[in-house]
Amino acid sequence: MDAAAWPDVARLPRGSRARTAVARALVGRALARLPLRVQYPDGSVTGGRGPVLVLRDPAAFHRRIGADGLIGFGESYMAGEWGADDLTAVLTAMAEQVAELVPGAVQRLRGLWEHRRPSAERNTPGGARSNIRRHYDLSNDLFAAFLDPTMTYSAALFEELPGSRDGLAAAQRRKIDRLLDLAGVGGGTRLLEIGTGWGELAVRAAARGARVRTVTLSAEQRALAEARVAAAGLTDRVAVEQRDYREVDGRYDAVVSVEMIEAVGVEFWPDYFAALARLTEPGGRVALQAITMPHARLLATKDARSWIGKYVFPGGVIPSVEAIERTARAHGLRIADDTAYGPHYAETLRLWRERFTAAAPEVAALGFDAVFRRMWEFYLAYCEAGFRAGYLDVHQTLLLPVEPRAPRTVLR
Prior knowledge:
This protein is α/β, with parallel strands linked by helices. It is built from 17 helices and 11 strands.
C-alpha cells in the first residue's frame, strides 16, 4: 500500500483502549441485531441467516471504528480488514436499521467522535473547483470503464425493474428525455444546463432544436463534452463552458440541473436557488434531478464529515425534499411536479458496480491501485445499499415561479 497516497488507511489511528472497547461492544450489539452472519479469523461464524461479513482483523476493525466511527468502518474495508460475500447485501442490512443501530444515549454523544467538515472543503467558488476536480477530473477513461456509452453519471429510468430489456443506455436516455419534457424543451428553447456531465443531455436537447448553454467546473468533463457535441454536429447549438453557476448571466426559457445540488453544500443552497430564479425567464421552467435523504437525517449529519465526503465527494451534502422546497420557495420558486424513483437508482448502481468489477484490469492499467479499487467498490455498494434500504431517494422536480398574489381590493 502507498502510505503517501493513503495515509489514514496505511496506518491504524491512535485510539484509546476505552474507545476501542466501547466500539467492540457497540459493534457486537449492532451485528447481533442484524440479519447477518459474521465470520471470524478462526473460521467460526455467528448469526443464523443473511449475508456474511468476513472479519479478517477484528482488533484493527474495532480500533478504527472506535477512533473514527463510520469513516473508520470504510477505511477498514479499504485496508482489507473486513470483507463480505455480498457487500451490497451487508451494507443494505445496516442501512435498513441505521437509525436504531446505535443506542440513543450514545447518539447524543456523537460529537465526541464525529469529525467536522473541513473548512477547506466549503463550496466557495474556489473550494467548489477544488472539490469537483478531486472527483470528476480523476480520468475520463476511469468513468468510461463503468458507465454506458452515453457517459451519464446519474440515476437511469428503466422501463421495468429489475433491469430493462433495452439496457442501461436506453434507460439513461429515457431519464434525460423525461427531464427535457418536464422543462418543456423543444425547438427554439433557450436552455441552460447547470452541471454538464459528459454532454449527453446537452446533445439530446440540441437535437430537439434547443439552443444550449451548459456549464461545468470539471476540465475533463468539458473537454469530452465538447468533443461529443462536435461529433454530433451540434457545435452551432451547444456552448460548453467551464464556469461556476454563480457566474452565469442571462435569462433562459428553461434551466435543467441533474444531481448537481448535492455538490452545492447547505451553506450555498440559497445562492443556488437564487441563481435558478434569476436565470429563468418569467414563465420559464426549472427541472431538477436530486438525490434526497430524510430531513431528520439531514439535520443530524449536515455538519459531520462522512467516509464518502472524505474519499469520494468532498464538500457534498445530500438535501431533503423539505430543504429543497423551503429554499426554493424562499427564492421565488415552487414545486409544481415531483416524482421519486429511488429503486431505479439502486438498479443503476448495481449495473455500474458490476461493470466496474469486470473492468478491474482496465482500471488498474489506468494507474488506480488496489486500495482505490476497493474504495470505489465500497462507494458504489454503499450508495446502492442506501437506495435499496430507502434511506436515499432520487427525485425529478419541476420548479415554477411562485404565483404573485392578486392585489387586494378594499371597498370603502
